[in-house]
Write a structure and sequence with these properties.
By secondary structure, the protein is mostly helical. It contains seven helices and no strands.
């Protein structure tokens, strides 16, 4: 299969490999006992992986290498990377001695993030089956940017909360980026639903 992949698609596959490395590193972290470098390394890997998302898209457009495989694989890998990060954020590794999740991410927020991705994937698949385009929107891009910023910011703040001497401000910063991510996700979901309202009308008619 690798021989049939163009450069942008190879970069996308490489991003999937980086996502796996990211998950392995992050799953080893246990708040209060694991070294901070695990979070630093996770943040670096995530940033590199997120950067390749913009790189493969740029190269595909510049060299006219947009393929059907790339249209499916690129957003799929993005969803794996982001959803995986937020799912791990509500794991036991990020719970302190008082039972508080130090990422400021709540389970319902993860449901919103993952649910949005499943919904958009379904809408895109439905549109594709009808031969209609359903490309990325501005709201979707803002959502991706917000998520891509939130994850490394949370990791760095947790890793260096004491060294940065931010005190309570660290918690506020984490909470702000998390809530901005949720807001961007909900706005993007609403925009896609509005754009695909004819699908809902059709389902009601049936």
């Amino acid at each position: 299969m690798s021989g049939n992949l163009n450069l942008p698609n190879k970069i996308t596959v490489g991003r999937l490999g980086l996502a796996i490395v990211f998950f392995v590193l992050l799953s080893q972290y246990s708040h209060g006992s694991a070294p901070a470098w695990l979070l630093d390394a996770s943040a670096v890997v995530f940033v590199v992986a997120a950067a390749t998302d913009f790189l493969d898209g740029y190269l595909a457009r510049k060299h006219g290498q947009i393929t059907a495989l790339g249209k499916i694989l690129d957003p799929l890998v993005d969803k794996v990377l982001v959803c995986g990060a937020f799912i791990l954020f509500i794991g036991a590794g990020f719970v302190d001695e008082a039972g508080r999740n130090v990422t400021e991410v709540q389970a319902w927020m993860v449901v919103v993030i993952v649910g949005r991705e499943l919904l958009v994937t379904g809408l895109r698949g439905f549109n594709a089956s009808m031969g209609k385009s359903f490309g990325a929107s501005l709201h979707g891009k803002v959502k991706m940017w917000t998520q891509s910023i939130a994850v490394p910011v949370i990791l760095v703040l947790i890793a260096h909360e004491d060294g940065l001497s931010l005190g309570a401000a660290a918690g506020w910063i984490k909470a702000i980026v998390v809530w901005l991510t949720v807001a961007a996700t909900l706005l993007s979901m609403w925009q896609y639903l509005t754009h695909a309202r004819y699908i809902l009308d059709e389902s009601i008619a049936e």
